[in-house]
Design a protein that fits this description.
By secondary structure, the chain is α/β, with parallel strands linked by helices. It has three helices and eight strands, in the order βαβββαβαβββ. It has a four-stranded mixed beta sheet, with helices on one face. It has a four-stranded mixed beta sheet with strand order 5-8-7-6, with helices on one face. A hairpin with a 2-residue loop joins β2 and β3.
């Protein structure tokens, strides 16, 4: 069976701030932008990898979600515990310097992890954890 990852979804609370982070800071290309205001679904992805995308979406818009569930999701997003994505780069230190020079919340500087990965972590504007692993 030949299966690949096509899309993953991350919530946003401010589509313009999330777009600026993924497009301007990480350098991803915008693939699609639909909706309006806070009800926008924005698809971004790394240049040269058209088959892999991140869909930035408004959280908990499903009418089946209760008010209590919405509250919990928003609380978890604010703490950075709701969603995460792990990216990879050959130049971890260069990527960290680029992010550190911007208006990005640094969670962890480049670190050699005990499980054999060197990485760092930041939070995107919605609070999502973004970890970046070094490709060796």
């Amino acid at each position: 069976m030949d299966i690949s990852i096509h899309s993953t979804f991350l919530p946003h609370t401010d589509p313009e701030a999330s777009l600026a982070f993924y497009r301007d800071v990480l350098g991803f290309e915008v693939r699609n932008d639909v909706g309006g205001g806070t009800m926008r679904w924005i698809t971004v992805g790394p240049a040269g990898q058209p088959g892999t995308s991140i869909v930035l979406h408004p959280p908990v818009v499903d009418p089946g979600v209760t008010d209590d569930e919405r509250r919990v999701v928003h609380e978890m997003m604010a703490k950075g515990t709701y969603a995460m994505i792990v990216l990879a780069t050959k130049d971890l230190d260069g990527a960290f310097e680029r992010l550190q020079s911007g208006d990005v919340e640094i969670v962890q500087e480049p670190t050699e992890q005990p499980y054999g990965v060197r990485d760092f972590a930041v939070r995107d504007p919605a609070g999502n954890m973004v970890r970046v692993n070094e490709v060796r």
